[in-house]
């Protein structure tokens, strides 16, 4: 009988010896793979966070823009309603002449609210005068849609200060002393007038809202600057 041949029990592939150069390279490759996997996980996490934050910001901007639009609409609606609402104590005149004249004009109201007037308007871009202005120039300003605030010696310093600040903040308005007027404070627009006793009267704000470039304006958009000072 022939003797059976002995089969080798050694593995076919060679395993790197611990501590050898081959083993170190294998460990380095495994470590690099782990680091890349961790980096990929971090990138995915950051991407999701960025998308989430961006979506939240977009929603906030949309919400904020909607709120601003609604707020602007509410203000516009409120101003429109105020412009239509009657104001207690306001007197009106119609069929007022509008001729340009170089002479002095005798008006039926003190201060006047309309009628013939000088070709040059009084500058009325929130202008506060410390001396009386000529009626004929101021009436031309009213024609352009300005509100003219006047006061006599009964007005206190606080009243004058408050009215001055209001006028300075309001284009198409002017203010001047008017010693001969009957009321303490008078607000005039074209064909329209209101007399009050104090700058704290809430009707003043309503008068400005309704009549600065309001429906009574004879020449909407006409200049209120570069006039007579």
TrEMBL record:
Regions that span the bilayer: 48-70
Biased composition (Polar residues): 1-13
Biased amino acid composition, Basic and acidic residues: 26-41
Originating organism: Kitasatospora griseola
Keywords: Membrane, Transmembrane, Transmembrane helix
The keyword Membrane appears for this protein: yes
Record's protein name: Membrane protein
Domain of life: Bacteria
Region spans: Disordered: 1-41
Keyword Transcription: no
């Amino acid at each position: 009988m022939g003797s059976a041949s002995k089969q080798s029990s050694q593995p076919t592939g060679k395993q790197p010896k611990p501590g050898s150069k081959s083993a170190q390279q294998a460990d380095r490759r495994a470590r690099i793979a782990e680091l890349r996997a961790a980096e990929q996980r971090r990138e995915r996490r950051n991407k999701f966070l960025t998308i989430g934050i961006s979506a939240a910001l977009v929603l906030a901007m949309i919400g904020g823009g909607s709120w601003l639009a609604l707020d602007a609409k509410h203000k516009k609606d409120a101003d429109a309603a105020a412009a239509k609402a009657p104001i207690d104590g306001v007197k009106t005149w119609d069929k007022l002449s509008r001729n340009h004249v170089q002479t002095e004009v005798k008006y039926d109201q003190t201060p006047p609210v309309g009628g013939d007037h000088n070709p040059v308007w009084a500058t009325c871009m929130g202008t506060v005068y410390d001396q009386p202005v000529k009626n004929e120039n101021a009436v031309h300003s009213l024609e352009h849609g300005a509100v003219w605030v006047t006061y006599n010696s009964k007005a206190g310093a606080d009243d004058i200060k408050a009215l001055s600040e209001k006028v300075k903040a309001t284009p198409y308005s002017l203010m001047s002393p008017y010693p001969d007027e009957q009321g303490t404070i008078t607000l005039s627009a074209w064909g329209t007038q209101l007399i009050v006793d104090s700058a704290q009267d809430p009707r003043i704000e309503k008068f400005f809202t309704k009549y600065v470039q309001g429906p009574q304006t004879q020449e909407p958009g006409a200049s209120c600057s570069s006039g007579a000072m």
